[in-house]
Design brief:
Blueprint lengths: L11 H23 L12 H12 L10 H4 L2 H16 L1 H11 L6 H10 L8 H30 L4 H16 L19 H16 L1 H9 L9 H24 L6 H13 L7 H4 L2 H13 L12 H15 L6 E2 L2 E2 L2 H29 L5 H12 L14 H16 L1 H5 L25
Antiparallel strand pairs: 1-2
Helix pairs in contact: 1-2, 1-4, 1-6, 2-4, 2-18, 4-5, 4-8, 5-7, 7-8, 7-9, 8-9, 9-10, 9-12, 10-11, 11-12, 11-14, 11-15, 12-14, 14-17, 15-16, 16-17, 16-18, 17-18
Length: 447
């Protein structure tokens, strides 16, 4: 009788390394291609700027080291940039697996584990089917968005059909993946500030990309009936709607005579994850609005989406735990469901580490740049990079090469998530006896 050796479980640390390595390799390949003169027009960009642009695209941030990326790249360069954004938004592991499925390759156990971690899922069940749905739904949403944008650019703005098609496809890819790169010049989308169709289509692409694929599939399956949605979807949708309404009201009230309701709404949408802007941020945001924008960028999008930040679920968990503690309730709950102690602990750890990381990056850039920029400007750029947002107070293009490399690291950590890097210190993923160890409880004074 043939005795088969039992396969050793795949360690989570090695899985995390593969995910990080896949992103890193795509970034290096993208930087090498974008640095080639054959993809440039005009002055082009040097290798540091090409590396920064590649990191920003793969990490779906949109921070740009040059005033106008569209003026630096020709058609080939723009196509490469769009592909990098798509790879970054959907995840290199997801894209590579989908291509393998299309070509008929069998997806191994190790590849399924890798997919589970990259998609932040708890089970291997249906993971291959999930990849197919993610790619198909993403392409369909981007295709529909591009059609409406073509109509707008061709009939309203009188772009040629070829230009309308090219600009629309790139913008749909960038918006859905919550990136923030655009080809409309150094002023971003300011020219479209009063264009309702362009603003609404872009905002919907951003929202669909940032709400999370799990929520989209749940809404489709439950036919939009909120009461039947799962716990995760209810929290993600509720938090997103509250932040959108709150953001619109605060932006409008803080500068009532300057901002229209459309500008306020669009800024509320894009500040959390996308990085587009229809206003001049450096000149029109007062100090209070800058601080509020930093808050929105730090919260970011929802889990399993194309956006960054600490995520809406984390923020909701923090607020709910504070509310329940203040009311003296014995359990942290919402929508008639209890939030586990492990998830609450994870939310607080993620938030604490994220704040500490942003403070460290801000300190490092201030150390490098000296007194050339204010603390407010550097914090804004740092949180924008960490939250993979891409909004800027016109500081990033003029930073030194060292500061740009620091922001590259910030975007990389923000895209993959601080928890991914913290997990390297956990050597007990495969230890089945960890749960049997109990410590004697000790009392400490809190507060």
């Amino acid at each position: 009788m043939e005795i088969r050796k039992r396969k050793k479980p795949l360690k989570k640390v090695s899985v995390l390394l593969l995910i990080i390595f896949s992103f890193f390799m795509v970034i290096l390949i993208g930087a090498g291609l974008l640095a080639l003169p054959i993809f440039h027009k005009g002055e082009g960009m040097d290798f540091v700027d090409a590396l920064f642009t590649s990191v920003s695209a793969v990490c779906v941030t949109g921070l740009c080291p040059v005033p106008d990326v569209g003026a630096c790249l020709n058609l080939g360069g723009r196509i490469i940039l769009a592909l990098l954004i798509e790879f970054g938004g959907l995840g290199s592991v997801t894209i590579i697996t989908f291509v393998a499925i299309v070509l008929g390759f069998k997806i191994s156990y190790k590849q399924r584990v890798l997919l589970r971690e990259s998609l932040n899922q708890s089970s291997l069940s249906g993971i291959v089917s999930l990849v197919k749905k993610i790619v198909f739904v993403s392409l369909i949403i981007q295709f529909i968005g591009a059609i409406f944008l073509v109509i707008d650019l061709y009939f309203i703005w009188n772009f040629s059909f070829i230009d309308s098609l090219g600009y629309s496809i790139f913008h749909a890819v960038s918006a859905f993946n919550n990136c923030g790169f655009d080809l409309f010049g150094a002023t971003s989308l300011i020219s479209f500030a009063n264009d309702y169709l362009f603003n609404i289509v872009t905002a919907l692409l951003i929202i669909f990309g940032g709400i999370g694929f799990i929520v989209i599939f749940d809404v489709i399956q439950k036919r939009g009936r909120f009461k039947r949605l799962n716990f995760h979807s209810k929290i993600a949708i509720t938090t997103t709607l509250v932040l959108l309404v709150l953001g619109t009201l605060i932006y409008k009230l803080c500068n009532f005579n300057e901002f229209t309701w459309l500008e306020s709404f669009f800024l509320s949408v894009t500040t959390r994850t996308a990085g587009f802007t229809t206003i001049d941020l450096a000149n029109k945001l007062n100090h209070a609005m800058v601080i509020f924008s930093i808050f929105l960028m730090f919260v970011g999008a929802s889990p399993a989406s194309t956006g960054g930040g600490i995520k809406t679920i984390t923020f909701f968990t923090l607020v709910t735990s504070v509310k329940c503690f203040a009311l003296g309730e014995p359990q942290i709950h919402a929508f008639n469901r209890k939030i586990s102690a492990q998830q609450i602990l994870k939310a607080y750890i993620l938030t604490t580490v994220s704040i500490a990381f942003c403070m460290l990056i801000t300190f490092s850039i201030l150390l490098v740049e000296g007194d050339d920029y204010t603390l407010e400007e550097i914090i804004f750029e740092t949180v924008s990079a960490f939250g993979t947002v891409g909004l800027s107070l016109s500081v990033t293009p003029s930073l030194s090469a060292a500061s740009k490399l620091i922001l590259c690291l910030t975007m990389f950590v923000g895209r993959l998530g601080p928890v991914t890097f913290i997990s390297f210190f956990n050597n007990r993923f495969t230890d089945t006896n960890v749960g049997s160890l109990r410590y004697v409880e000790g009392n400490v004074i809190i507060g």
